[in-house]
Design brief:
By secondary structure, the chain is mostly helical. Helices cover 70% and strands 0% of the residues. Helix 3 (31-39) crosses helix 6.
Amino acid sequence: MIWFEDFKLTTQRTCSSENERLSIFKTYLAGDARLVYEGFNADDIDSLDQAGEMMKQVFAIAWDQQEWILHVRDMKKKDTENFRLFAYRTTRMVRQAFPNSDENTYNSPAIEYFTRGLPEAIYSYIIIRKPGTLD
């Protein structure tokens, strides 16, 4: 993430605090990156470096297809992520695990892996509701 290193250097010179750097960082994000960042628990982020590492954990994964399938099958919702971020992470992993599928094809496994990864009490509630999408 070359842009992130450039951002760090620039904000080291121009910002007076780490909180200011984090605030500016959030305004630079858009699309999936913004969605992911907003899904993190703000209390868990103490520095720009930590925010960057958390973002890398979501976006900088280089697995082959079989590894994606294994990881999506075993994934669980993290205590530090909200449901929207978990749904995004699940959908992204299903797309990587099954790259030749269209949206209608991967929607069903995305819902299945999402519900499997939820805590037991929530899993039971969601299964009863039979969601058609992760939206």
